[in-house]
Design goal:
DUF2358, disordered N terminus, NTF2-like_dom_sf, 24% strand, alpha+beta, 45% helix, 7 helices
């Protein structure tokens, strides 16, 4: 409690020795205790507020993610079907059915050149069918769903620019650092711009990518705000 008195030993000293009676020091000590406890309470309140804000941001981002997925599916109904040639890759290595890692890496780099994030032009043979795909909004399994989402997302984009900046190799994965920007085809023409990196975890059994994890170097709420912000010149064009 904030109004806790001094320990029993101090109270005994107060009654048995009048020469040591110093009530001012006693109250001053209590005030320090009060201040400390009030400050700790405030810190807990701030932490609770931060957690609540983070949860709200996660909810908004997930809502926007699933909303864009549904919107892309709806748009695909009215979009003419395009014939997509899915290029395969040859199996190398020691003949045990495991794809050579260097071939998978070069295939991923080639997919970057085709902006597979927004075109869906991903080489399916480089990934396991039940590969896990994760990003700041959530995760799911299924290569076909990932390709469909990428293709549908591309239908919502007016123009885009994607570039692989750097590639790093590790024992169990490769990491591709990228830069991405696009103009959405919404009426207010919002512009998304971000940098980030993707982790490609390689299965030892197949040599294919079994986990595809995106990391965006942009706060979650900043991405959501970019979607809501009209591009420059939008209001001028609207008024002309």
């Amino acid at each position: 409690m904030a109004l806790t008195l001094s320990p029993p030993s101090s109270l005994t000293l107060h009654h048995t020795s009048k020469s040591n009676h110093r009530p001012v020091d006693l109250f001053r000590s209590n005030r320090r205790q009060n201040f400390t406890r009030i400050r700790c309470t405030g810190e807990r309140d701030n932490s609770t507020s931060t957690d609540s804000s983070s949860e709200s941001g996660n909810l908004l981002l997930k809502t926007a993610w699933y909303g864009s997925e549904l919107l892309g599916i709806a748009a695909s109904v009215f979009r003419p079907q395009e014939k997509v040639v899915e290029r395969g890759i040859e199996i190398g290595g020691d003949g045990d059915g495991v794809i050579d890692r260097s071939i998978v890496v070069e295939t991923i780099k080639g997919d970057f050149q085709r902006s597979y994030f927004v075109t869906g032009a991903v080489t399916l043979d480089a990934y396991e069918d039940d590969c896990e795909f994760a990003d700041p909004a959530g995760s799911f399994r299924g290569l076909r769903r990932f390709k469909r989402n990428c293709t549908n997302f591309g239908s919502l984009i007016e123009k885009s620019n994607m570039k692989l900046m750097k590639w790093e190799d590790y024992e169990d994965k490769g990491i591709g650092h990228w830069r991405f920007s696009c103009t959405m085809s919404f009426p207010w023409k919002p512009i998304l711009s971000a940098t980030g990196y993707t982790e490609y975890y390689i299965s030892k059994e197949s040599g294919k990518v079994c986990r595809h994890v995106e990391h965006w170097n942009v706060p979650k709420m900043a991405l959501f705000k970019q979607l809501l912000k009209p591009s420059r010149g939008f209001w001028g064009k609207k008024g002309s």
